[in-house]
Specification:
Blueprint: E1 9-15, H1 19-28, H2 33-36, E2 42-47, H3 63-74, E3 80-85, H4 93-99, H5 102-109, E4 113-116, E5 123-127, E6 137-141, H6 142-146, E7 149-153, E8 155-159, E9 163-165, H7 167-170, H8 177-185, H9 188-198, E10 203-215, E11 219-222, E12 227-231, H10 234-245, H11 255-260, E13 271-275, H12 278-281, E14 300-304, H13 308-323, E15 334-338, E16 350-356, H14 361-369, E17 374-377, H15 386-393, H16 397-404, H17 407-426
Parallel strand pairs: 1-13, 2-3, 2-7, 3-4, 7-10, 8-10, 14-15, 15-16, 16-17
Antiparallel strand pairs: 1-12, 5-6, 8-9, 10-11, 10-12
Helix pairs in contact: 1-3, 3-5, 13-17
Length: 429
Amino acid sequence: MRSYTMSQSIVSIVKGTDAELMVEQALDHLGGVKSLIKEGSTVVLKPNAGHPGGPESAINTSPAVLTAAIKVIQKANPGKIILAEAAAIGCETMECLEVSGLKQAALDAGVDDIRDIKADTDLVQVPIKEPTSDIKHVDLPRFLLEADHFVNLPIFKSHVSMVFSCALKNIKGVVQDIVHYVMHTTDLAAAMMDLGDIIRPDFTIADMIHPMEGYGPHSGTAADVGCVLAGKDMVALDATACRIVGLTLEQVPYFDAAKEKGLGVFEEEQIEIRGNSIADVHKPLFMPYLDGFEAFPEYTFHVERACSSCQGLAAFTMSKLKSLGEYDKNAGMHVAIGKIRGIPENLKDGKDLLLFGDCTKSLQKRLEKEGRTALHCEGCPPGEPFPAWMMIQRMTAEEIVLSEGEALRKRMEDEDALFRKWVAEQGGR
């Protein structure tokens, strides 16, 4: 386990137009690729390719940055370079790699192997020491554990349920669907930290050339920031990325947890920036899900001690209802979010009340003692798009899954297209 002292973590920022040159310079600021990659070694590269989306969508790491990383790492004469990914639940890894252009880019750049982690059967059960979530162990592919180097290649994206996605969030793509599911049913941020504690990259190269803004992680739009970041400390890199795009760290619920887990540091005085400065590339991104609930007066929100993840996802859910023409139909519903004490006055119940996330379980129990019911969307945070579906259909998530089965994926794709069209009609920014 890598330990961090009060010495500074290094994060390099390189602005430019040539991806290969930018990546090489970013690694030069960390000591150079030959100091980071051993000759003859096995290197695993982990991009973000969680959902189908072309290079222009900013849904996945760009082919340009992947190509650059492969070519620069090849200069250290490794023995083998493996591209590995596990797409999101309900998505096919190879399809995502193909649609994104990452598979062809990797082949053209000379990668030695492409592995679908979701299809891997040679797994090793790795216990989590001192878990902070309900996950006690993780099954990881043997090839990943036995590799000499693990390189993290995320793209920065807005994220309606996790505020943003970058280095720490991208690590979640090394597990199979069953673990993905369990992570979403517990405290997802804590589960991410537990996973990050046992599978740490040697370094991260973050794609911030065209990061995603808007309603990410798969319904946003590409922005133009024009830089790449690199660093060995995922927390320091993520914190730097947040400062570049105008996110205050107080809006991110898991930085303290990451530091306590020993994953890195986030205070500015503990991060040494090399290359370009934050000011050189600073560009606030559009993240409308953080604006609050005043924009939705037709609904009543009961919010107490709620994290920004659930609040952001709830705000996104309201916009999703508008895009589907369901907002007015369900006006008047109450939504409860957070660790609410007691039972709020005038709180509706039954199918007119949606309890949002695991923190509302105690409220659900208090209601049940009074003989009252509610729709409860479980998860920490809940999985999108279930909150919207539950409000539309007035059914539990389990009932929706059982009634629609395999048709859910097609429904998600169709609704995503409608949502993107709606966002464009609103004028974006």
